[in-house]
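Protocol step 4 of 6: structure prediction from sequence.
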Amino acid sequence: MGKLTGKIAVITGSDSGIGQAMATAFAREGADVAVTWHTDEKGAQATAERVREAGGRCIVCQLDVTNEASVKALFEAVDAQLGAPHILVNDAGIGKSKAFTELTLDEFDQVLKTDLYGPFLCAREFVTRRQSEGGGGKLLNITSVHDAIPSPKNVAYGAAKGGLLLMTRSLAMELAPMKINVNAIAPGLIRTPMTMERVDDPKKREEEMPRIPWHRPGKPEEVAELALYLVSPESDYVTGQDFVIDGGLEMNWGQGA
């Protein structure tokens, strides 16, 4: 028996990177998984194959987290094909590195809608279903070290991730009577398709790695193992927390002042 035997998990953005690693880890522990993709269907199918190889049932759905109808359709598909979900991980997200005065309203809006509205819409569908099932469940939001650390030219991303952290804590309090755990993971620099260009560039590595006490980027699988704990019964007394996994990066905030 795995830690998640009999559980059904919805993981947004599970077509690559951290989301793909979480889907694999959850299936290894007995979960059935709903894999979602926005533009990378091939990646989502690769994730689904990993889930099935690990012994889990799997469905693959295209999802636009900014679209209320798309989110609703996802959860209806999960209900019909797998059953009411016990676990939701809000992993889908985007960034936009751009000087503040050059940032358009549409660009700001797109980041906020993806990284903040999306988790809201998915969480609302998830919680509604957990209410119908009598409560219980695990809601996990993937934020970033930038939910606390400011980053120049990333105003939209910081606003979204900071908001997601406070949403996490607010929901943790509101949903505690229903015994729904709500937590966040705040990754630092993790080697994913979104960051590969940075971490694989020798010049950028030379510039950035000294800022990380562990002197390397993290692996998606390392984040997945933390996520596995937070969606398993072992974390039943943990809620409203933000777990930083960054090789010590956040400790360097203010060093040399």
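Step 5 (inspection) to follow. Residues 11 and 249 are 26 Å apart (CA to CA).
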